[in-house]
Amino acid sequence: VSTQSTWEEKSRLDRLWEQLVVALIGEEFEDPDVVGIVVQVRIKEDVLSVWLANKAPKFRVGEKLKQILHLGPSTVIEYKNNKTSLKDHSGLRNTQAYLIHPDKPGTH
User: Which helix (DSSP H) or strand (DSSP E) does residue 62 occupy?
Assistant: First the structure.
């Protein structure tokens, strides 16, 4: 989840990060493949990431992330596996964007 880096958005980022931390501690993702979270504060945009041990639950976790953070249905979730991140030395370059629709088959 990316947000623009304005002062108003910093407050929003703080709230989103807090919700994400509480969700992880409370095991709200209900998925053992969720192994970590990270926030990256950058000049142009900030990034919240959920780390998965396995790519299989990416749609289910993305859907749950939208629920936890109260994101709208048009919010795009981006996915990138760890091996690719290590190869190109970037967590954002070459990501795959997904628009998750909870009512469509194959998204659970």
Answer: helix 58-68
- Measuring CA to CA, which residue among 53, 69, 65, 70 is closest to residue 107? 65
SS3 content of the chain, % helix, strand, coil (to 5): 35, 25, 40
Instruction: Look up the pTM and report it.
Output: 0.73
Asked if 67 contacts 20 with a C-beta cutoff of 8 angstroms, the reply is: no
Q: What is the pLDDT of residues 85-97, one digit of tens each?
A: 778 777 766 677 7
CA atoms of 43 and 34, how far apart (whole Å):
27
Place of tokens 């990316």: 2
